[in-house]
Structure formats: structure tokens, C-alpha cells
Write a structure and sequence with these properties.
With 177 residues, the protein is mainly alpha-helical. It has a domain of 113 residues: Up-down Bundle (Four Helix Bundle (Hemerythrin (Met), subunit A)). 67% of the residues lie in helices and 2% in strands. The chain has a two-stranded antiparallel ribbon. The longest helix is centred in the N-terminal third of the chain and has 33 residues.
Length: 177
């Protein structure tokens, strides 16, 4: 029995094999350079890794989640508000682990002490889809954040609830499900 493959199927398989071989070759070609770069480091030292500053954490992870949770709840997207509340808690936790002390203040402990009750109240409001309770808990969280800014000598940073729903590129209006 003779097996023949159509020419276009053969070319397609050849192209895939060529792409895989090229990818593998490039990956292997990069390994010696990476090994060489690592071996140039002094013995016993490790290259410093990037540690975001407290400000970087605030601007890049915490502030957007704070805003998005508000917009989601204001728009009635309670599942997304809950999602962002979880992300906000996680971002604060990472901040506290990355920067355990700020101006001789145990930052992680400070964060937990000022956010625990507002986070619990926000969670309850989201679960019950209660805008009034959410707004009150969000105001309490925002006040807690501002008190933390004061305590860590960053009182010039004052946050508030968003006043405009258009400050985000997130679409909070969901199609009918």
C-alpha cells in the first residue's frame, strides 16, 4: 500500500516542524549567554531584583483597584466589585510584605488594623448588593487609607471616591446574560 500526502498538507507539516526547530535552536542559543551573564557576578552575590516602592504599589495596583471597586458597585456589577475587593486585599498584603516598615512603623500591621473592618463591611455589602452599605464602607476604607497616609508622613496624598464613571477604561455595563 502506498501512502501519499497532499502537497499542501505536507508543506503545512514542514512549516510547523521548521518553526519548532527554529524556536528550539534560538532557545538553546540564548542559554550560553544567560549562563555567562550569571557567571560574571561575584561569588556569593545575587543580582538585585526590582522592588516597587510604596508609591509604585499605590499607583500601579492599589489605587486602580480602589477606583474599579467603586465604579463596579456604582454600576451594579457586584461580582466585579467583589473581584476587585479581593484584588485590593491582595495588593495591600503584597505591599505589607514588600515594605514591612515605613518610618519606623510596622506597615503590614498598620494596613491590617485600618483596613480589616472596612474590608469586612465592603464584603458584606457586596454579598447583599447593598449600595448604601457599600458606599458607607467605601467611605470608611477611604478614610482609613488617608489616616494611614498621615501616619506614614504622606498626608499630602488624599484619596476620595471617584466622582466620574468615565475615569476607567473598564466596561462595567454587561450584556444581558
Amino acid at each position: 500500500m502506498s501512502f501519499t500526502m497532499p502537497i499542501n498538507q505536507h508543506l503545512s507539516k514542514s512549516s510547523i516542524l521548521l518553526a519548532l526547530a527554529t524556536s528550539a535552536y534560538c532557545s538553546l542559543a540564548l542559554l550560553p549567554g544567560a549562563t555567562l551573564a550569571q557567571s560574571d557576578a561575584p561569588a556569593g552575590s545575587t543580582a538585585p531584583s526590582y522592588l516597587p516602592s510604596i508609591s509604585d504599589f499605590m499607583i500601579a495596583t492599589i489605587q486602580p483597584r480602589h477606583v474599579r471597586a467603586w465604579i463596579a458597585a456604582r454600576s451594579g456589577d457586584w461580582s466585579f466589585a467583589g473581584y476587585e475587593l479581593g484584588n485590593l486585599k491582595g495588593a495591600f498584603d503584597r505591599l505589607g510584605r514588600a515594605h514591612p516598615m515605613e518610618h519606623d512603623i510596622p506597615l503590614k500591621d498598620l494596613i491590617v488594623s485600618v483596613t480589616a473592618q472596612p474590608f469586612e463591611d465592603l464584603h458584606k455589602a457586596i454579598q447583599s448588593k447593598d449600595w448604601t452599605a457599600f458606599s458607607k464602607a467605601y467611605t470608611n476604607l477611604t478614610s482609613a487609607c488617608n489616616s494611614c497616609h498621615e501616619a506614614t508622613n504622606h498626608g499630602v496624598v488624599v484619596i476620595r471616591a471617584p466622582t466620574d464613571l468615565s475615569i476607567s477604561d473598564q466596561n462595567f455595563v454587561r450584556a444581558a446574560q
